[in-house]
Amino acid sequence: MERSVQVLKFGGTSVGSGERIRRVAAIIGHQLRDNEGMFPVVVVSAISGVTDQLLRIARFACTGEHELWQQELEALKQRHLEAADKAAHKREGREALQQDLQVAFALLEQGVSAVEMGRGAATKEPGGESHARDRALHAAPTISAWGERLSVLLVAAAARDLGVQAMPVREEVIITSDLQADTLPALGTVVGADPLAQETRVNAARLIHPLIEGGIVPVAPGFIGRTGGGNVTTLGRNGSDYSATVIGEALDCVEVTIYTDVDGVLSADPRIVANTRLIPRLTYAEAARLSWFGAKVLHPRTLIPVAHRNIPVRVRNTFRPHTRGTVVGPDLGGRSAAVAITARRQLALITVENSDLFGAPENAGQVFELAARAGAAPVAICSSSGHHLSFMVEEQAVDPVVALLQHDMGSWRVSHRRGLAACACIGSGFTADPMSPARAITALARERIPIVTQGASDTGIILIVEESDSERALRCLHRDLIAPVIPLVRHEAQDTHEKRREIRQG
Hints:
The protein folds into two domains: about 20-250, Acetylglutamate kinase-like (Carbamate kinase, 3-Layer(aba) Sandwich), CATH 3.40.1160; about 340-480, 2-Layer Sandwich (VC0802-like), CATH 3.30.2130. It has 16 helices and 17 strands. The protein has helices spanning about 20-35, 50-60, 65-85, 90-125, 130-145, 145-160, 195-205, 210-215, 240-250, 285-290, 305, 365-375, 400-410, 435-445, 470-480, 490-505, and strands at about 5-10, 40-45, 165-170, 175, 215-220, 225, 230-235, 255-260, 280-285, 315, 325-330, 340-355, 380-385, 390-395, 410-425, 455, 460-465. The strands form three sheets. Strands 3-5-2-1-8-10-11-9 form an eight-stranded mixed beta sheet, sandwiched between helices. Strand 10 (about 315) and strand 11 form a beta hairpin. The longest helix is centred in the first third of the chain and has 33 residues, at about 90-125. The termini are far apart.
């Protein structure tokens, strides 16, 4: 490709109404005119709340509740038609958009009716209820895909209304693997399929390159894909960020910009910590650790497609587009302090100890294999020695993990502790400065917050505390490591001087 490409991804809140969609269109136009030769390729989510609404429609169709899915569908139609009225102001463009939406609504309704009719036919077959459920599980991605298909129509029309040559991409760009029977979603939910990089690259070239070469801005659906056999899939809940980087990697883009409803990545959760700071730059490793330990700005898989190519990902605010946001990219070195504090809650600590102090060393591989068999990935490994291993898991997974360990580990003693949280102090080179971990531990000690256990790596330190102490721990760690609060204290000598002056004046 001769043009340098920038992927712009807009989430559900960014396209949450007709007025917001028009704001998105204005950002697209600005990027097209003023962004130093980088041509925008747009990836959009469904309007906020629409995916849940479509999943309800799928569930009602699968259970034969005809009136309920009809009511939900009518509400969905009305919401999109109202958005169309606000998104496109010119009469000709608005009428064309309304016609496109009506065609899409008709196809969606046909699909839902087919699911309902298929359920009825399936229940009459031998083993009918099982067949009906299988149809229901496959129906979820097919029906939930329509949220993005409707969004691309709205955003492309709004962009054209503002003078931008734009066109909706009406096919799924991302090619994925098939979902196996054992990974099919529960009724009313979605599960993520795995993108196939080379197949997606070929498909992106077919669908998107001709538009770019013609100077037309492609508006592509996020979140959804299809298999080589043509079955619709999704990339999992909140997977549109991930889909943007998958498409960006397939197009060899210069940057992926994710527009959301915050200014970028903050140094802590602003609902808990008052004086948070915007982080101008993060490394891929730092961003991945923040996501793993509870920060919600980026989907955990978002960075996978682009990190090995050193393609930066920028997080910006749709409603404050003048802010530069946070850039996530390769490690440029030179950092040795915490940049962000986050917490992951509802965890449990599992400890495995050999009761024979002179026996064979523990087998960590066996422990984690058993944990995986119970469906639990360790959140953090806190300590390990020849005869001792402790690690964190999600609290809901602790019982099956402990049961398997007790059954299979022979002479090993297994114990666990619930109601914990992992406070993560994240920053590249954090442990290179011996004072950084010491300051973190001292901060909690000063507030009388007990540390259950801890773990450290080059990207930070993990402090395990009682969940009831986690918010207080976040605030004091942020205060001592990132943004000290300077109290407004009047000096005693100054107070005395002012009192004397008042007496003389009196």
